[in-house]
Structures are given as structure tokens and as C-alpha cells.
Amino acid sequence: KYFFVPLQTYNDFQLREHSKFHTIEEFIELVIKSFALNAPDDVRLVIKHHPMDRGRKDYKKLILNLGDKYNVKNRLEVIYDLHLPTLLAHTLGTITINSTVGLQALFHKSPVKVLGKAIYDIEGLTDQKYLSEFWKNPLKPDMILFEKFRQFLINNTQINGSFYGYFDWDKI
């Protein structure tokens, strides 16, 4: 039994412009402190580094030090490259600033708590309670609403193709 925290990159524009956090470190401390004070004793907190931060930032030492500070080190897991869909499918809930992983979590029916501003932070999709309450009774997303929201995004904001591959602009 675990709650899942996917970290965003240390220099993420969404962190700077659409959240109250100045750094990922601030976010990590707030989450660990809240977990220590409010989460049931029989659950763990799994924190996953962002793959694009590999070689730039490693928060493991900070996380373990905060685990000592808040007396939850034995309930923390720091991970790097585990399969995201599997993690999301089995978590009690996902806590994020405003990562697109929140959308993936909703797809996997994971309760989501957003601590920044996100396009998908909508009543019925994400848990609107305070983080302190989320640990005790995370609210699952309304999957009918999620599917409507997902279709709206696909139909109004997406172009088929890949950022990393060839795209034939003449075919749109």
C-alpha cells in the first residue's frame, strides 16, 4: 500500500509559473511532512525521480534526510526507472505539482491531488480536499467525466504525430 509522487524536472516551467513552489525541494519537504503527520501508519510513500533529471539532480539524500527529520524514513521509497503505468495502477493515490503524470494517473483510476495549477485539476477528476485529508480518504476520479475531458483534449488540443519523429505537415 503506497502513495505515489512523480517528481517534475528541477527547471520545469510549470513549477515556476503555475505553482507556489520555488523548487522541487520545497515540494518534496511539504509532501513528506504532510505524509508524516497525516498518512496512515501502514502505508508507504514512493517518490520517483523524473527521467530527464538524470545526471542533473538527485533528491535521494534530501528525501532520506527528510525521512529522518519527520521520522518516516522506513516508509519512504526512492525510485528511478520503474514502469509508470504499473505504479499508477496500484497506488492509493498520486500527489503532483501539476505534472502530466496526473493525467496518466487519472487514466489508471488513481486518485490525484494537485498542489499547483493544472488544466485537469477539476472537481470530479482530482481530489479537492487539503493534502492532509487526501492521505486518509483519497477520492477516486469520475471516469465518465475523465473520458469526456480526455476526448475534449484530444479533439481540441492535439495533433497526431511525435515530437521526436518525422511529421508530414502536409497531411493535416
Entry keywords:
172 residues, alpha/beta, 12% strand, globular
**Going across the major beta sheet, what is the strand order?**
3-2-1-4-5
Distance between the termini: 45 Å
Strand content: 5-15%
What does the largest sheet look like? 5 strands, parallel
Provide the succession of SSEs: EHHEHEHEHEHH
**What coarse outline follows from CA principal-axis ratios?**
globular
Radius of gyration, in angstroms, nearest whole number = 17 Å
Task: Characterize the structure shown.
The protein is α/β, with parallel strands linked by helices. The chain is built from seven helices and five strands, in the order βααβαβαβαβαα. It has a five-stranded parallel sheet, with helices on both faces. Helix 3 links the parallel strand 2 and strand 3. Helix 2 packs parallel to helix 3. The longest helix is centred in the first third of the chain and has 15 residues, at 24-38. The N and C termini lie far apart (45 Å). The mean pLDDT is 89.
Quick rundown:
This protein is 37% helix and 12% strand. By secondary structure, the chain is of the alpha/beta class.
Topology at a glance:
Elements lengths: L1 E5 L6 H5 L6 H15 L5 E5 L11 H10 L6 E4 L4 H7 L2 E4 L4 H7 L4 E3 L16 H4 L8 H15 L15
Parallel strand pairs: 1-2, 1-4, 2-3, 4-5
Helix pairs in contact: 2-3
